Each structure stands twice: as structure tokens, then as C-alpha cells.
Amino acid sequence: PSSQRPKWNVQHDQLVKEADQREGKQYIPNEKKKARINLTYQKISNKGISASKRSQKKLEQMTANYERYPSGVRLKGPGARGEGVSVPESRKDDEEEGFEQHSFNRVASDMISVHRTLQDHRNSRCKIKKYPQDLPTSSVIICFHNEAWSTLLRTVHSVINRTPPQLLKEIILVDDASDRDELRTKLEDYVTKLKVVRIIRLSKREGLIRARLTGAEHAKGQVLTFLDAHCECSKGWLVPLLAKIAENRSNVVMPVIDEISDQNFYYHAVPEPFHRGIFRWRLEFGWKPVPQYEMERRKDETEGIRTPVMAGGLFSIDKSYFNEIGTYDTGMDIWGGENLEISFRVWMCGGAIEMLPCSRVGHVFRPRFPYSFPARPGGDLDVVSRNLMRVADVWMDEYSKHFYNIRFDLKRKKHDDVSERLALRKKLQCKSFKWYLENIIPELEVPDTNFVAAGQVRNPSSDKCLDTLGKKDDAPLGLYECHGQGGNQYFVLTSKGELKSEDNCLDYNGYDLYLRECDGLQQNQKWEYKKTALYQPRHDVCIDRGSSNAEYAKVRACDGRLAQVWEFSRTEDM
Ligand code: UD2
Ligand code: MN
């Protein structure tokens, strides 16, 4: 196998060796690793096939199971096999700074080799699945803004170490105007030696949407594969993606996204059966279990899962198809909404999105944004809301009202001119949003607009409003200062008597007052708006804000006290 190693890897070995020596690490020869690779090859069964077929089969399987490490790399250090690491007491101070700058534990990341090994979490059927040999090549595009050095390079090396070289055209790093020293000065040196990596620097902050597009414009591969800058690709990740695109160039595909812990960098493989990407009416991305009808459509567990919306960061798309369907909406800034936009567009304009169970890539999910969101000069809107309005205005037809019902703070805002995107939609003869809802995500409940009252639900004596506090599915009903922005404070009282926040219903079972999955109106979820009280007939109680600093609402016997007065901000049907 070592003779098959491409040149850039040899150079790369040298580089790693030098770096390790500089840092005073011991340079360990690579016998164990070689043994492992041999083992992988020997596992392939040769029984009963002719010699040429045998070598062909071997090649195929090698491709889907490709994994090489440069010689000299330590395969057993901290974090090996995807384990988490614990930061020693002496580095606790840096730890805080790391979290501050990146919203993940940079010190933990720095402790782990950029070449760390991962376990093979694929379903065993994936390992023997056959893929065609003449797959298209891919450019891998990674854009970043002030990413941590070790996570960025672990992303890069995980691509190189686990992608068959003949399929990897190049890795394009797009620097979205980072201002960290090491990224500006040392990155060129490091990556030129890897040969397959190119850097493009943007002179001003563009946001991930236009940054990815710049990468795409420079890409030479037939397929574009996008990754975030804090990912780790698992063994066999790319081949299934390319094979699905080779079947049909309008297939847009994503891996299963495993979770790398932001605390200790443990690689947590999400278990089967997987969840798939969906959206909620406030145009928020979410994960939901794969519905039965989709499970039944698939013939075996290696088959792709049709996905209404993709997470956005990790996917592959045929380059010519990407251009044909209008790349991204370049009117969107920084972050957010572009994943919904491209998902709606692909489905409505004749393509398909699938998540492929045999492809797994880890991603560090961050609890908050470590970067700023510079808004457009003169605009009165935050960046994400503006992006989402563009999605709603271009793609959602009459259903956009459900978004604006929840985000009624946006109704008075100036809408962007989206005529170019509407023209694109017309040119591509895309289907309606109604079609998308009925065919691609039929399980999504369209909000009942036949409601009795809607808006924020305010208790005037405290100026507190009912609030989900951002929690969903099985959470107590919260209280918070009224903010007039809808979202977590937007409730509707349907004509059937459900008090709903998005797809949850308020439920009182005689014990606790929770937002739960709607039960089709068995009586724990039935409420009446009586004068100013929210009354539940089954238990004969009213919603009560409790003491003036209570965090959660409760119920009490109805007695008309001020704590039981609730006003809906608007009651008109919109
Ligand atoms: C998710 C996606 C992300 C993107 C986003 C919606 C996954 C795993 N991640 O958020 O790719 O689709 O949803 O917009 O699906 N970056 C820039 N310039 C900026 C801001 C970010 O280059 O102004 C880079 C950033 O360094 C990272 C990538 O863009 O490499 C995605 O940003 P993120 O990781 O903050 O987004 P994430 O994972 O929260
Ligand atoms: Mn990310």
C-alpha cells in the first residue's frame, strides 16, 4: 500500500515529522498503522470470483474504506479513536479564553492530534456495499472566520486521510476576513506542503454564503462538497455522496452529522434510526425522527433518507447543477436561512435531498456564536431575520403568512427586493410551496389560522408574557418580560380550544402545566378564553402567573385575581 501513497502525502509526512520534532515530540515509526491497513485489505473475501473481478472488487471496497495516515503520526495520543480529553488543571485558565473565542473548548482541541483516529461507526452493511469505480471528483470547500487552528487543520487532515486521492480534486479554504495572527501568517506555509489545499482570502467579511460561493467559483472538481471548519470526516464518508450524485446529478446529498463535543471533543456517533432535517414555521431548522412512510420506502438501511431540509453546512452537489439552479441567494449575509433557501429550491425545482447513512462526518455544534453579525448599513433589521424574510418572500407563496404570524415583529419591516430570485424561480419552472408541503413534508402541520385569538399573551399587572423560554416538546410553560417579537411568546388559541406554540399544545394533567405534543384534544389540552381568563374546564382551573418574579406559569382555582388576567396582543385573523 505504501507505494500507492500519492506524492503530496510523502511531503506531508515530512512536514509532520518536522513539526513534531520542533515541538519536541517523539517521532514514532508507523509499523502498527501499516499492520492495520493490511488487515483491512485482508478482510476482503476473495472466494469464488475471477482474478480480474477480484481485483476490481478489491479496488471498490478499498475506495469505500479508504484510510491512510502519514507515517510518523502518533495514532495513540489523546483523543485517539474519537475519545474525549480532559484538560489538566494547569491549563484551566486558557480553557476559559478558548471557550470565549470559539464557543468550544479550544484547549481540548489543541491537545488532540490533527490526525486523530476515529472509530468506524458505519452500519456493517456500508462496509461491504458496492460503489461504481468511475466516480466524479470533488472539490472540498471549507470557509471559516477566525476558526481555531487545530480544529481547522483537523478538518483538513480528516479529509486528506480518509478520502481516496483520485476523488479529491482539491481542498479550498476560504478565509472570510479572519484577523487572527496564525491564520493570516502561518496557514499558507502549512497547507502549501499538503499540495491539495488552496487558500482564498476575502478582503472583507462576506459571511458564509458568499464565502462558499467564492470557493465554488474557483473549484475545479465536478462535485462541490461543503464542510464547516470544525468537522472530522469518518472513514468512507465521500464515496456514498459521490455515488448518489453519479446516479443523478440533481441529487443533493449530505452525510449523517455526528456530534463532536464542544466540551471535550468526544466523537459521538448518532445512533440509528436517524433523525432527518425539518423546519418549523418560524423558519428554524430542526431534527425529527424519520417518518414511517420514508422508512418503508427504503429497501435497506444503507439507502438514503429523503430530507426536507438540510442542516446546511455539510453537503455535496454537482457543480453544474449548483450553477443551473442558482447557487445561493447572494443577497443573504453572514449566517442563517441559506440552508432553508437551497433546500426549498432543490425540492421545488426538480431535485432531491438525501442524507446517506453510510457517510458520517462529525461536527462541533456550538452553543452560541463566537463572531459578530455586522448588519447592512442603514438597515433596521438583524442579519438572520433579513435572510429569513428573503426565504419566505421568494419561496413560500401564501404560506409565508405563517412565518410572519409568528414573527409579527417583521411585518412592519421593509422587505428586500427579491425580484431576481423570483425571476429565477419562474425560469426554472419550480413547483409551488403547497406541492413541497404535501409531497416532501406531509407530516408538518400547517398552523390553523382559524383561531380565536393569537399573539403574545400578556399579564398586564406584571407585564409578563407566556413564553416557551426556547424549549420545545415537554417543557413547563415559562413567563418572561413581554418583548413584542413573537417567537417564543407567540401563542394561538385555536377554534377547537388548543393553546398552541408552534406545534406544541399547552397541557395540564392535574399535576403540571407543560407544553407537549398535541393530543388531538383529549381534554387536558382544552382551554377557554373567558373574558380575560384562560380556563381549563376539565380540572376547573385558570392559568395564573403566580408571584411577580415566578419563572413558570401555574394553575389555580379561578378567582379573577390580577394574576389570572391575560390579554392577547391581537385577535384579528392575519
Ligand atoms: C449551521 C450549519 C452552517 C450553516 C448555518 C446556517 C451545519 C453543521 N452547520 O450552523 O454550515 O449552514 O447553519 O447558515 O450544518 N463562517 C464564515 N463567515 C461568517 C460566519 C461563519 O466563514 O461570517 C464560517 C464558519 O467559520 C464555519 C461555517 O461558516 O466554518 C459555518 O458557521 P457556523 O459553524 O458558525 O454555523 P453552524 O454550524 O452553527
Ligand atoms: Mn458549524
Work out the strand percent.
15-25%
Helix content estimate: 25-40%
Molecular shape: globular
Give the N-terminus to C-terminus distance in angstroms. 67 Å
Average residue pLDDT: 89
Structural class: alpha+beta
Major pleated sheet: 9 strands, antiparallel
Please report the total strand number as a whole number: 25
Unreliable sequence segments: 1-20, 22-49
Query: Which small compounds were modeled alongside the protein?
Result: uridine-diphosphate-N-acetylgalactosamine, manganese (II) ion
Cα Rg? 26 Å
Helix count, DSSP H or I runs of 4 or more residues: 18
Task: Give a concise summary.
The chain has 574 residues and is α+β, with helices and mostly antiparallel strands.
Feature tags:
9-stranded antiparallel beta sheet, binds uridine-diphosphate-N-acetylgalactosamine, globular, alpha+beta, binds manganese (II) ion, disordered N terminus, 18 helices, 5-stranded mixed beta sheet, 574 residues, 29% helix
Give a description of the structure.
Helices cover 29% and strands 22% of the residues. The strands form five sheets. Strands 13, 14, 15, 16, 17, 18, 19, 20 and 25 form a nine-stranded antiparallel β-sheet that branches. Manganese (II) ion (MN) is lined by residues 228, 230, 313, 363.
Describe the protein's topology.
Blueprint: H1 7-22, H2 31-42, H3 51-64, H4 92-102, H5 106-111, H6 124-128, E1 138-144, H7 149-161, E2 168-175, H8 181-185, H9 187-192, E3 197-201, H10 208-218, E4 223-227, E5 231-233, H11 238-247, E6 251-260, E7 267-268, E8 275-280, E9 284-289, H12 292-297, E10 305-306, E11 315-318, H13 319-324, H14 338-348, E12 352-364, H15 383-395, H16 400-406, H17 419-427, H18 433-440, E13 451-459, E14 464-467, E15 475-476, E16 478-481, E17 491-494, E18 499-501, E19 504-508, E20 513-517, E21 528-530, E22 533-536, E23 541-544, E24 554-556, E25 567-570
Parallel strand pairs: 1-2, 1-4, 2-3, 6-12
Antiparallel strand pairs: 4-11, 5-12, 6-7, 8-9, 10-12, 13-14, 13-17, 13-25, 14-16, 15-20, 17-18, 18-19, 19-20, 21-22, 22-23, 23-24
Helix pairs in contact: 14-15
